[in-house]
Amino acid sequence: MTPVRTVSPILVVGTGLLGTSVALGLRSQGVDVLLNDASPVALGLAADYGAGRIAPATSATAAAALDDAEANTPKIVVVCVPPDVAGQVVMEQLTAWPDAIVTDVTSVKAAPLDYVREHGGDLRRYLGSHPMAGRETGGPLAGRANLFLGRPWVITSHAETSVQALQEIEGLALDLGATVVNMDAEAHDSAVALISHVPQLVSSVMAAQLLNDDAGASALAGGGLRDVTRIAASDPTMWNQILAANGPRVATILRDVASDITELATALEDMSVPGARRIVADHMIAGNQGVARIPGKHGISQTFATFTVMIDDAPGQLAKLFSDIGEVEVNVEELQIEHAPGANMGLAQISVLPESLTTIMDELRNRDWKVAE
Fold this sequence. Notes:
Order of helices and strands: EHEHEHEHEHEEHEHHHHHEHEEHE
Number of helices: 13
GO molecular function, one term: prephenate dehydrogenase (NAD+) activity
CATH superfamily of the largest domain: NAD(P)-binding Rossmann-like Domain
Organism: Gulosibacter bifidus
Domain Prephenate/arogenate dehydrogenase: 8-302
Number of domains: 3
Catalytic activity: prephenate + NAD(+) = 3-(4-hydroxyphenyl)pyruvate + CO2 + NADH
InterPro entries: 6-PGluconate_DH-like_C_sf (IPR008927), ACT-like_dom_sf (IPR045865), ACT_dom (IPR002912), NAD(P)-bd_dom_sf (IPR036291), PDH_C (IPR046825), PDH_N (IPR046826), Preph/Arog_dehydrog (IPR050812), Prephen_DH (IPR003099)
């Protein structure tokens, strides 16, 4: 077993999805975790589910009065609260625990850093970070010990960052199975605006168009609509907090998106106008080039070949399909499953390396699977 880098105890402030997952992940490796939350219900649930023990002291002074003061004095404090209060809570923890390294895991990094700097916080002991992981549900019951396994964990170093703080937070991220990425707060916030915040809003706006669907077109929806609108079900309150801290960066990209959409709409109004078809094609080609930049399996860009298998909606069918694929000795790179509207069957879209496509399709057809490229 790999030696644990994180020294006990640590304090997790905020027992929602991320806080509880941090705590569960560290507890699974034997780290002593203290828990604190403004909500007694969330705090009690996290403790009951094994995320750690409720912190008996709220400051170094209070901890010193306890018989086991050292066991209740955190070496690291992980702040897991909404972005609109993150800076304030980080300052409170820096003051309460003058010997502890403090990090926060909010999805916007410049605002908390600016708050701590403006309020005279000890920046040698504060180092923001952001695990790029989450789930569709929140709260302590959604916490998972393996939530960060293989996921990027951004650490936003700044001019005052101490070597100790960097080592401690990198160690914590590595102990949780994450991959450490170092970048400054401004670069991080620009990056998440592009790859997370704008997609959320574009998805929401597209899904909102379905409110005007009086003809029942949504009943015909396939994978394309589901892919584009999947994240539109996100919590508006949480996203308001995130977007309020990163609004100008998001607005700049949204205006670029709006400009492209306006150009496309103008071209589509009359495709007989010279150059209109070129405009549409150029935007789609640019989209092809953009999606090719998204890292795939193992973090590398790779082009896969995709085919579809029709599966009866019955127990054991998916297991049989994978058993047959295993016998063919072809590795599945990606898998998506959707149900055929109005039919008791599913459609499995399977991606493999291009050189394996013909082999696997022929073999599955020979085993009586209905296959389409």
